[in-house]
Design brief:
The complex is a heterodimer of chains A (328) and B (358). Chain A has 328 residues and is mostly helical. Chain A has 14 helices and no strands. Classes of the chains: A mainly alpha (328), B mainly alpha (358).
């Protein structure tokens, strides 16, 4: 029982960087901008955040630096795609590769240099609770913030005027524009805020979860984060669930390495992508016109629940995701 | 002669040509300038004389015959990938799954080598290339059917399949195809020497590699710019719905473009096995697919430009290998330079379009 609680706590901790990255990507994608540079941004954020923290000997400054790096990359993406009209896919992809290479080049001097990390901060009293204390309250500030970030993003997106505007930008930018929303400026804002969160995700690796910096330190995490956002259907809670699921898979992989030698851990690395593809395919297939017609011809007792299940499952991407907006 | 321009004003043809030339030059020069500025800034932050670094990046690959051979052996699969990507780019698809197609090609190329090691090498090579091409094509068609059949965006389908492909490669290396004695994630056992593609003297240069790459590139150019098929593919890329109304089978053309790209990526993977690494390693593609994507973002759907750009990119990468020893800096500056070139090209393209609209 105690071991399970410790494992659960480890899952929550391991998911923290992914929570920051996916929530950042979510903000950006909900406003209609796809930031494909995530992998490079996380990598550069990890390297830059670690270097800043090392030089200034201040962990908060490290996170600040990483957030600035993430925001700067997002700004470049916005200038090139929103202002200069280039494909978001192309720009994001180039920025991803560029970020990875820059992190390797600039990070070479700090490879495997010991540096500061986020201090452990058990919450007094609560940490001593049986089980719950171990799972939730024996972490550090960063992980507590990751717990708060998901409800905050959810509240912001679905229960504030601002969130309504953001969702309108992703679904019907022309309608938002007609109601007086400065579409491009708001997209800049959301994409940059999201980018800052992604940068923080990088620092969360180098200053906490995988302390320090080495060549391609956060390899593939950006692509995984992008996959999880899709897996979660652009809904904050589902996306968070995806993050915890992935972190749990990772922990299981670590454990099984000890107990069942021979099962390659790569199987677990691949799992989120296979899940993403399957979910995407399923969503598109069940929401196709043929499938809907078939549902409509079901006996009435079945039709209701099935239709509800399909509408729950089949979450479409924001309609204007990745598309250009021209002022009418 | 007078031509009416978009603004309704009459301009002489000479002015027009001059403007065109300036446009063309700007499109060629601006990316270089931009990339140079960005890379120089990066180099200065690590306190390296930029000129020394550029000298090695530009000429390092030509300093010895061995390095030149390495450059050709890198440029060949790169040409195959970038050439294939011009097909998908023309069809309006971002085939981000090309890395996985290279890996699957390499895996498939290993199958005949393992099954019939006693066949005469030339026959075995042919089999290997055929299997490799089929493997890459299969993986591309999987991405295509996810996109065209189930509506999964080809970018994410491709990305997912990339990771799946490298997962399969690792599984094979650690599992069924592991080395006798000790399983090692570094790769399968080396192929017997007689199965390596023949090389020039003591160099690592196998002439068959550039020959295959160039032939493939010519075929791509021919198909894309001289055949009705290519015209239809480009029509689909410009406006799929419109092309479909006009009787072009859009879905079929997209799938064919993907298949063609996968085929070439599979050949690239086969080259990596037979000509470069002589074994299956986890990182068998060594990123040629990703660099190929950078190349195609520079050249767009114009296969002729693939050759010079791929050679230049390969020159940077091979030259950069000497940087750690001579200047004490990391070799990834080559990747920075390549990425910066594409980024600067995108900026200048955007600025031009903006100016033209203004």
């Amino acid at each position: 029982m105690n071991q399970l609680a410790i494992d659960l706590g480890a899952v929550l901790a391991a998911a923290a960087p992914l929570i920051f990255a996916t929530m950042g990507a979510l903000l950006s994608e909900r406003s209609g901008v796809i930031n494909l540079s995530l992998d490079g941004t996380i990598m550069l954020g990890a390297m830059g955040g670690f270097t800043v923290a090392l030089v200034t000997n201040s962990v908060p400054l490290g996170f600040g630096g990483a957030a600035l790096i993430g925001a700067a990359i997002a700004l470049i993406l916005c200038i090139l795609s929103l202002t200069l009209g280039q494909s978001q896919t192309a720009v994001g992809f180039v920025l991803a590769l560029l970020g990875i290479e820059l992190s390797s080049f600039l990070g070479a001097p700090v490879v495997r240099v010991p540096g500061p990390s986020v201090p452990f901060l058990p919450i007094p009293l609560l940490a001593d609770l049986p089980i719950v204390g171990v799972v939730f309250f024996r972490h550090n500030l960063l992980i507590y913030l990751s717990f708060l970030l998901v409800p905050f993003i959810w509240w912001m997106l679905f229960h504030t005027r601002m969130g309504l505007t953001v969702r309108a930008l992703g679904e019907r930018p022309a309608a938002a524009f007609a109601r007086g929303v400065p579409v491009t400026r708001m997209r800049y804002l959301m994409c940059i805020l999201g980018g800052a969160l992604v940068g923080i995700a990088g620092a969360a690796y180098s200053l906490d979860l995988r302390q320090g910096w080495s060549y391609r330190h956060t390899f593939g995490m950006g692509w995984i984060a992008l996959a999880i956002v899709i897996f979660g259907g652009w809904r904050p809670w589902r996306v968070a669930f995806g993050c915890y699921l992935f972190a749990a898979l990772e922990i299981v992989a670590l454990r099984s390495q000890r107990t069942m030698a021979g099962v390659p851990t790569q199987v677990f690395q691949v799992a989120p992508f296979v899940l993403m593809i399957l979910v995407l395919a399923l969503v598109n297939l069940v929401s196709s016109p043929q499938a809907l017609r078939r549902i409509a011809s079901l006996p009435p007792t079945l039709r209701g629940p099935v239709a509800m299940l399909v509408s729950r499952l089949a979450v479409a991407a924001p309609a204007a995701l990745g598309q250009r907006f021209e002022r009418p | 002669m007078q031509i009416q321009d978009a603004g309704g004003q009459l301009t002489s043809r000479a002015t027009y040509q001059l403007a065109d030339l300036a446009d063309y030059l700007a499109r060629l020069v601006l990316p270089f300038l931009g990339a140079l500025v960005l890379t120089t800034v990066v180099l200065l932050t690590v306190d390296v004389a930029p000129l020394d670094a550029y000298r090695i990046l530009l000429f390092g690959a030509f300093s010895t015959p061995i390095r030149f051979g390495d450059m050709v052996m890198l440029a060949s699969p790169l040409i195959l990938c970038a050439g294939g990507l011009t097909l998908t780019f023309a069809a309006g698809l971002y085939n981000l799954g090309i890395e996985g197609q290279v890996v699957l090609g390499a895996i498939a190329a290993m199958i005949p080598l393992r099954l019939f090691p006693d066949l005469p090498p030339p026959l075995l090579w042919m089999l290997s290339f055929a299997f490799g091409a089929a493997g890459g094509m299969l993986w591309a068609l999987l991405a295509a059917s996810l996109r065209l059949g189930a509506g999964v965006n080809e970018i994410f389908a491709g990305l997912g399949l990339n990771f799946l492909a490298s997962g399969i490669a690792l599984y094979l290396i650690l599992g069924p195809w592991r080395r006798e004695g000790s399983a090692s994630s570094s790769g399968t056992a080396l192929l017997p020497r007689e199965l390596w593609l023949p090389t020039v003297g003591s160099l690592r240069l196998a002439p068959l590699a550039p020959i295959i790459a160039l032939v493939a590139l010519v075929v791509v150019w021919w198909v894309l710019s001289r055949m009705r098929w290519g015209l239809e593919v480009r029509a689909v890329g410009l406006n799929g719905a419109a092309a479909d109304r006009l009787g072009v089978p859009a879905v079929k053309r997209m799938a064919q473009a993907m298949a063609g790209c996968g085929l070439l990526a599979g050949l690239a993977g086969t080259l990596q096995v037979l000509g470069v690494f002589h074994q299956l390693i986890p990182n068998i593609s060594s990123g040629v697919g990703l660099i190929g994507l950078l190349v195609v973002l520079l050249v767009l759907a114009r296969p002729i430009w693939v050759l010079p750009v791929a050679v230049v990119f390969a020159t940077f990468t091979v030259g950069s290998v000497q940087l750690p020893l001579t200047l004490g800096i990391d070799s990834s500056i080559a990747g920075v330079l390549q990425g910066a070139l594409v980024l600067a090209a995108l900026v200048s393209r955007g600025l031009m379009q903006r100016r033209r609209r203004a």
